[in-house]
Amino acid sequence: MAVHTKHPASAPPAAPVREKTGHLMLRGWCVFVLFMALSGVAWINAIGELATAIITIGGGLLSLGLWFAVRPPVQWRRLPWLTIAYVAWAALSLIWSQWREATALTLLLLVITTLQGLFIGSVLSWRELVRAVAAALKWVMALSLVFELWVSIFIGGPILPGFVIPTEPADDPIVYWSRDNLFDGGRIQGIMGNANLLGPVALLAIIVFSIRFAAGAPRRATLGVWIGLSAYLFYRASSATAYVAAIAVAIALVTVLLMRRARRPGERTRYYLAFAAVGLGGAVAFGLLRDTIFTALGRSSDLTGRERIWQAVLERAVEHPLIGWGFSTPWIVGDPAFDGWITDHGQTVMQAHNMWVDVFLQLGLIGVFLMGMVYLAFIWRSWFFAVDRPRWDLRADRPYSPLTLLPVLVGALLIVQGLAESGPLLLWGWLFVVMLAFKIKQSPHIGEGAAEMRIAIERGELTTRAS
Question: Which of 15, 136, 236, 345 could form a disulfide with 172 if both were Cys (CB 3.0 to 4.6 A apart)?
């Protein structure tokens, strides 16, 4: 007579719980949203402004609809209120804006990007979020290399946005989508059409793939290949801003790892003082050796004309120092207020090339204060999210997770990038600040929080996580 038992020693092994199709599709949509933000202006270069606007607005509406349909558990008291305050102040600037059409158009982009960041942070667990970011970055890195290969092999020369092959050389190569530099050793631009946009994204890819590798993700050999490809694109983009950001990321990583090793009270204080001294010494050395450093990087000492741009922007900004001239990120070059105001290589610039100068122009000192508080809160929470051992009960020996490194390293990247670019104010820069800040507040520990528990329940892992 057969005897049945539920004892784990004799019970047949159960198959792993499969993810629901709906959740797989939801995660796939999040990957697409992240890809859109990370690839940035590639969409405009490929299909034009109107089609890109339709996809962006449609994507925002779809995410909003999915958010209401999924109804993920959200702790509403723990929303990123400083971020919402900045968006509200930008919306309020419609009242006094000197370029209302530009304000209304770019404000819509800001609201959609903020919505997408909140949406992804609420429907994905920490592990799923990092996995989705990695998937989106794989598409960006792969398509950038394939695009440059296609241009070099099949076109054999530069190409303009819209896949237009120029009949004669352009007055300035800045207008090209790709300059066909893959095999001649020049700077490559990827699908973004701008090496200064490709460099930081390639650095972000190195960070995310390395974190996944350290976390023991499957197919680690393949992850090693992706890290190598990202490092190659990072090097070929040859962005001075990205190089400096890489140094800041490395310093932040070393500091976090040292802080995790502290065992005695006051030991972290010594590390903080030591790194503060190193940082101050580095800043002084940079100021004294600035010309030499930028010459070595192949850049002019005025940051390739950025100081001229900053001066022009500040001269206008001080005319309305408290509330600014009105939100517009990026600048709409077709607006009379911006068209021909500041030019670089014969093209009207779309940003102040410094996020703080840009915010000062648009939203005044109040906007600068709000943005400063947004980043201060983000870095503060990211730092302790990374250096503190996960603890939500009496157990104090839980291991650190490599995933907790992502917010603080992204913060280091964006802060440095923001000194020479306005990228952190829009697209993937702003989306990541909103998404990660919101995620830390909702789920302050890997495996804990509303979204984490929902995923655990769906997969039948609740008892495992609780043990």
Answer: 345
- Per-residue model confidence (pLDDT) at position 348: 86
List alpha helices for 75-187, DSSP H: 81-92, 100-123, 126-150
Alpha-carbon distance values, 369 to 110, 255, 333 (Å): 18, 27, 27
Q: How far apart are CA 265 and CA 383, in angstroms?
A: 18
- Location of structure tokens 């792993």: 16
Q: Is 251 exposed, middle or buried (0-12, 13-18, 19+ CB in 10 A)?
A: middle
Instruction: Return the H-helix or E-strand segment holding 239.
Output: none
Helix (H) or strand (E) holding 460: none
State the Cα–Cα distance between residues 121 and 439, nearest whole angstrom.
Answer: 5
Spatial CA neighbour of 429 closest among 412, 446, 441, 452: 412
Phi, psi of 453 (to 5 degrees): -70, -35
Helix axes 355-387, 81-92, angle to 10 degrees: 170
Q: How far apart are CA 267 and CA 455, in angstroms?
A: 38
pLDDT for res 346: 79
297's tokens: 């990087």
Kindly tell me the burial class for residue 100, based on how many C-beta atoms sit within 10 Å of its own C-beta (0-12, 13-18, 19 or more): middle
Reduced to 3 states, what is the DSSP secondary structure of residue 455?
Answer: helix
Kindly report, residue by residue over 123-168, the tens digit of the pLDDT.
Answer: 999 999 999 999 999 999 999 999 999 999 999 899 999 999 998 8
Helix (H) or strand (E) holding 337: none
